[in-house]
Write a structure and sequence with these properties.
flat; 5 strands; 8 helices
């Protein structure tokens, strides 16, 4: 039986070549990691700035003409002022709100709503939009203030939802349990979803805020908020002893 020749150990040149190849791979890996980190840092800020710029330009082009020429500073300057139309809209809304808060303004608004109530299709659209804005903007409202988990669409599968308030009295009468109105949004666009009436005992209320819950939904679970329970436990007197 013929013996195989012994394998000679690598010489100095081969060792140097292997070390150089490993060093190159390590350098490429570091550069790749730095590149991905740079994208992660700059992409959200760049996209946010770009969308804000598009929105400001749209408002400027649409409502920038509301400002009379003699009060428009762009008439006296050789360059345009971005955001001037947006500022005009904000000022107009403030003036409208101040007028609507007065006695005459309330009469005018009431008269206008009375006319809208007599329009068969328009009154439904107007009433729904008004209730949504009143619910979201009213400081006394508790709508969209709690993030919950519920087993939906079947047992063992958990979905994230947002409590919007108690249901209508007629809906509450169908169950002996206390029902809660929950909106289960779709990901990554939370403006669509499902309206559910769930017994409150079947809801698991989370410690995260509504903003944090929306980030989870919009990112498809990629962005997760910090665990508030750890911070509460660390701040408790028992943990500090």
């Amino acid at each position: 039986m013929q013996k195989e020749p012994p394998v000679s150990p690598p010489n100095g040149a081969e060792k140097a070549s292997a070390s150089s190849h490993t060093h190159k791979l390590g350098l490429i890996g570091k550069l790749r990691a730095y590149f991905l980190a740079g994208v992660l840092v700059t992409a959200p800020a760049a996209i946010t700035i770009y969308l804000a710029w598009l929105f400001i330009n749209f408002i400027d082009g649409t409502f920038g003409t509301l400002l009379p020429g003699r009060y428009n500073p762009e008439q006296f300057m050789p360059f345009t002022i971005p955001g001037l139309g947006l500022l005009t809209v904000v000022i107009v809304l403030i003036l409208v709100g101040a007028f609507a808060a007065g006695y005459v303004g309330r009469l005018v608004v009431g008269l206008g709503e009375g006319v809208v109530e007599r329009m068969p299709v328009v009154r439904g659209i107007y009433g729904t939009i008004k209730q949504i804005f009143e619910t979201v903007l009213a400081q006394r409202s508790t709508a969209f203030r709690e993030v919950v988990l519920l087993e939906y669409p079947r047992l063992g599968v958990w979905s994230m939802g947002f409590i919007t308030g108690p249901p209508h009295a007629e809906i509450q009468e169908i169950s002996d349990d206390e029902l809660t109105t929950v909106v289960v949004p779709t990901s990554p666009i939370p403006t669509a979803g499902y309206l559910l009436f769930v017994p409150r005992k079947d809801l698991l209320i989370l410690d995260m805020t509504v903003d944090e819950g929306l980030r989870v939904v919009m990112s498809g679970g990629i962005v997760n908020p910090p665990d508030r329970r750890k911070r509460v436990a660390a701040a408790s007197p028992a943990a500090q002893q």
